[in-house]
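Trying the structure run again after the queue cleared.
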Amino acid sequence: MKEDYYQGINQLMQDYPNGDFEQGLSVNEAKERLLVNGPNKLETKKVPKWRLFVRQFHNMIIYILIIAALLTILMGHLSDAIIIGLVVVINALIGYYQEANASDALEKIKEMLASEATVYRDGKRLDVPTEELVVGDVVFLEAGDKVPADLRIVDSDNLRIQEASLTGEADSIEKTAADIVDEDVPLAEQINRAFASTSVTNGSGLGVVAATAENTQIGQISMEVEQVKTRKSPLMQQIDGLGRGVSYVVIGAAVLLFAIGFLLETYSLSVLALAIVTMIVGSIPEGLPATTSVILAMGVSDMAKNKHTIVKTLPAVETLGSVDVIATDKTGTLTKNEMTVKDIFLTDHHYQVSGNGYEPKGKIIEVGQAMVASETLKLFLEAGYQANDTLLYKEDRRWKINGEPTDGSFLTLYHKYFGENYESEYKEVDMLPFDSDYRYMAKLVKSANGKQLIFIKGSPDKLFPMAKVEDAYWTQKVQELSATGKRVVAVGFKEVSSDLEKISHEILFDGITLLGLAGIIDPPREEVIESLKDMRKAGIEVKMITGDHPLTAKTIGEKLGLAPKIQVITGQEWDQLTQSEKEAAAVFHQIFARTTPKNKLEIIEALQASDKVTAMTGDGVNDAPALKRADIGVAMGIEGTDVAKDSADMILTNDHFATMSIAIREGRRIYDNIKKSILFLLPTSFAEGLIIAFTIIMQQDMPLQATQLLWINMVSAITIQFAFIFEPAEDQIMERPPQKTGSRLMNRHDIFQMGYVSVLMALISILAHDWLLAQGLDQVTASTMMVNIIVISKIFYLFNIRTSKFALSKEFFSNKPAFLIIGIMVLLQLLLTYVPFMQQAFHTAPMSVVEWGITILAGFLILVITEIDKWVRMKRKETRLRELYN
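Done. Tokens:
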């Protein structure tokens, strides 16, 4: 890819050996190259909608349910087949809706490209569609243009280009025709190149097309976005594994039971086949996908309403709870992307400035002594305000700038001291705009009394010679500010005659008075510092990936408290590493500076290769491939580019990185509740299967009808499981380590508890059923009580599963909606038992007070046994902790 990209640089040397760039290519040559190399546009490939839908059926549980539905159709049980089929279709539609509504990031990248370009052909300047640009074309750029392809700058006049979305640099970058062709220069430092989709903010220039279409930097990003393969979320991996495991066990048991039943010859072949299908349907947790989706969907809705978070794919909510590394962009994410003056050094004074960003709130405070209104300070502020061509304004309750961030910082500083509505007494006479050749700007102004001054600000190494500064004090202050990652701007003035009408460089070099220095930084977001503390408690590492200078990035990292000790690596250093070294470096370093979009993607892949569940936050086009590759990509909703938002799984609507810790807490709560719902659902499903299995082994008549099993599985299971949607987070949920990649959903005790609870439910139900028959009651009444025993046992078991504390503790009433849901379930059971048409459809009969008493006693017994188990585990844990600390 690099060879293709740089072939344009070599090509231009052949096309313009004499440097006559305004001649351009001939029209015929441009046509020939267009035919050979193709148009300058990005192509996208879309997955057909029908394929998305078919893909939803690729699931072991779904396969088994489809087979079960076909078998019930063959046996003439059409109503059972319809119910099973509806479950399959609903699950497929939910999955299809999620995938079909995923936005297309590549389409957004295409929208960023310019539609027309101004080129020279046959010595004439003309506008052509961007698609018709070819390598070797000479493009004319001016302020307001979008760069149409990747260019080698060959002529420039104060040309500055905004590349923040591509490189992460806040300020516009000066572009020159300097003869630099080193392929290893970081993207942000390639001053003789312009990149497609970036914007010209100042000046004009000429550039020769070096790369088009997918060979451009933005094109390579689009290809990476398209080729990036996303990983399934940890929970989805666990549920898939669980589904396969359950399916294998159920199918194995079904085959074994069929063989036993066939050999015993107790049942006819049709009755035995129906019993086996009934066992399969009863044992397979068909409500699991629907329940999981409902809990995720409710979590998504709650986060959008109350937590400033839009989640685009349901599994992404749960993935948050498993995240153990957050890789984040710096500019606009950890920092405000709003340059702010933090230090002012005058000849004998040092001031610090409070407040961050462009909002003019804050104070100027003198360090080490009481603040005294200084005329020199006022003149310094006036000079920074006047030597400026940026506009500061308020829109939609937010302060914004139109112009350069560094200039904007001086406007905000001015209003912090003088007030938002203060108007300067000075009026502009003439202005010398900033130019990359001399790196300063100046303005000639006239005061109300007719006195004229020139205010100037710019690079210290340019203003010091004008002020004839040889004092080591100023050099030392520049070094001190630079060492803390601050950008340093010098400010000065010169009094001139009242009849001067135009500024010249000669007047300035004739001598100015240096007023002082300003130390400027893109400030960290205040809320991020506390958020990072919360994340460290939760066992989550945060890593900064930025296009900024290493020193600046490290300074910001230290201010944020990114880690106790910060290790920095640059993109150039990263490129020299082997794959195994990259994996180690990704884990070891906290800051990755001067990175390319490709570096960002490789860092995410290296972290994932080290079994890290990785989140990536960002707002620029350069973040898109990494956002898509990460286990969960998080984009900024306000300042984020459309490309970043469409590549991400989640969008923070308030742009606050601190929202991440709130979202992670919610993700952990949702993970816990899904796990609880699974641990709650499976014992019931297995109990139903065991009832059929025990019946076949004991060669008795089937105690339950298929419709009764479907009622238990679909109606009661899903209804009761709604209670887990509202279950609050457990105490200290953010103080435990994240779920490890590849870990199992259920530990040994979970499997043990699931086993003994399902056996208890099955045995108690069978014993109660047989006892009623022994008392002379009919089969219909006995099976009705069996259905109610299973459902009521589930209700009691719910209180055990809801919390890791005892059921009858203060947590008992922490989930009030659960009692409403239980009430609905009890009402449904009463309808099932007493309403005539329900009795006919589900083969039920009324129950006596004694039968209800047995049912409630059976449920209470399940709760008591599981609570004793919980007590034993808590005691063992206390003993281990005492041994550990003693």
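The longest strand covers residues 150-162. Worth checking whether this holds up in the mutant runs.
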